């Protein structure tokens, strides 16, 4: 669950000033990023125009990729602070290892949730042998101030709550939707849910008026609140909504993300979420010196070195640009 850019730029996020007080329809562009040795992802958040949706601060969508004759995902050990990672698969498998001793294979429909807190390191790879297809989403949640130095841990939840309506099946990854609550630990009010929409179906989901929302199209070409979306598109919806209407002419899969606007201003650089540039610099120094993050055992390869820090000071600012 990683930002593997070799020249990452600081991303300055948070605060409520750029959160619209009314519903909007902003289709946000993604950009192609190489993740590890062989997996290309579409980075939807942060992106030009929007850095966060609630506490969600990072969204990658990858696949579907044919990897039968390829190594698949191969992400060496790397560090995190101040965030949670959320792994969600549609096809394939990911083997997770971390520095608190977790070893877990995550499969489609299962939640892999890692709380970095004060510091953790982990690796991710397609197991050998592995399924022929790889398709999923990788997401980060920024931890609020009272919890951002919590003890690191990993959760795996194979059974998740489901909300159903005619032609619609919604699996709740994080937070709560229509009275169904995920078992995953959340530290701020939010929601993450996969929506499966049958061909020809139309449905409405209840929303929280105080939340801001976005929808990522994983497959198909659904219509979300009247806006037709292509696969891989992220539609930012703003706040002040009571419901979300979706329909599909064909089978569609979507990811609904939302939460209370994140009030704090944060600095995000490489795989770190902090509040000041000095914290980022200290985390980088700790990782490069082999201290503070622990060791990931069982991965056949060297840890990732941290990129060089940018030549300008890292300062927290708002959530949009």
Automatic annotation (TrEMBL):
Residues 41-141 form the Pirin N-terminal domain. GO terms for molecular function: metal ion binding. Keywords: Iron, Metal-binding. Fe cation binds at residues 78, 80, 122, 124. Belongs to the pirin family. PANTHER family: PIRIN, PIRIN-RELATED. This is Pirin family protein. It comes from Peterkaempfera bronchialis.
């Amino acid at each position: 669950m990683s930002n593997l850019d070799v020249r990452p730029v600081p991303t300055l996020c948070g605060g409520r000033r750029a959160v619209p007080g009314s519903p909007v329809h902003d289709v946000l562009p993604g950009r192609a990023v190489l993740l590890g040795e062989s997996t290309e992802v579409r980075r939807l958040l942060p992106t030009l125009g929007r850095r966060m949706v609630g506490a969600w601060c990072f969204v990658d969508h990858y696949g579907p990729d044919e990897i039968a004759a390829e190594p698949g995902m191969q992400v060496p050990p790397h560090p995190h602070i101040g965030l949670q990672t959320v792994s969600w698969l549609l096809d394939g498998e990911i083997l997770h290892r971390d520095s608190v001793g977790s070893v877990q294979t995550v499969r489609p429909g299962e939640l892999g949730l890692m709380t970095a807190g004060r510091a953790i390191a982990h690796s991710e790879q397609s197991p050998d042998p592995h399924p022929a297809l790889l398709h999923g989403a990788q997401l980060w949640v920024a931890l609020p101030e009272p919890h951002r130095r919590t003890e690191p841990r990993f959760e795996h939840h194979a059974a998740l709550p489901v909300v159903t309506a005619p032609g619609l099946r919604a699996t709740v990854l994080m937070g709560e939707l229509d009275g169904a609550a995920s078992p995953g630990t959340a530290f701020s009010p939010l929601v993450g849910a996969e929506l499966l929409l049958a061909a020809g179906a139309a449905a409405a989901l209840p929303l929280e008026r105080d939340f801001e929302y976005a929808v990522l199209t994983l497959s198909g070409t659904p219509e979300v609140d009247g806006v037709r979306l292509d696969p891989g598109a992220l539609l930012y919806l703003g706040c002040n909504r009571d419901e979300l209407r979706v329909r599909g002419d064909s089978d569609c899969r979507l990811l609904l993300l939302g939460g209370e606007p994140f009030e704090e201003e944060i600095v995000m650089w490489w795989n770190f979420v902090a509040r000041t540039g000095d914290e980022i610099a200290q985390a980088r120094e700790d990782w490069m010196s082999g201290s503070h993050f622990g060791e990931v055992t069982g991965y056949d390869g060297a840890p990732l070195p941290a990129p060089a820090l940018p030549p300008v000071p890292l300062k927290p600012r708002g959530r949009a640009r």
